[in-house]
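Input chain follows. Return structure tokens only.
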Amino acid sequence: MATKARFYRVTTQNGHGESTKIVSAPKKSVIPSVFENKDIKVTKVKHLGFMVVNAVPNEDMDDVIFVVPDLSISIEREEAGYKSLSVQFDDKVADVDKQIKDYHSGGDFYET
């Protein structure tokens, strides 16, 4: 069972200035394909290392989010990197999906 994922600090630039995001990606070379388009260019990518990732239910108990304690971030479904984390941590996602299903069916809810 995987416990860590690779994270990067990505700086992008558009006509309004620079923006910085922290994302998970399997390798540095895939990052431009996630962010770049005709208006946005990746200007900097810094590897932050391998970080522990936890899968937990969101506040509404209707979806899985990923929490990275060392970076004090959470990653929701619509954010860059969510899909790759879902694949890498599919076993953790399945456990949380079961928690959510049990919660909504009146079953026993448990913390992991």
